[in-house]
Amino acid sequence: MDLKADRVAVGEVDRFGNPVAGRDIPVQVQGCRRGQVRAVLGDVAADVVSWARGTGKPVVVEGLDFQHRTAPARVKARGLMSPVALL
Hints:
Layout: E1 2-3, E2 7-13, E3 19-26, H1 34-55, H2 71-80
Antiparallel strand pairs: 1-2, 2-3
């Protein structure tokens, strides 16, 4: 999953890590309170789990550590590259 300002992008990969499907789930969180954002993201998570169950694949979350990043990685983290976890 990749959280963007207006959507959550979700990808499905095969057993070799090759992308086989993807979709965007629109989200509107701008101007929402913390509880509302949690509710929206909870709904998205439920949707992703439902999709994963339908494909028979687990949801995989990659643990990313941004504490020890280099200067080029900071530039990428600003929008050119986002943390990704794939189904």
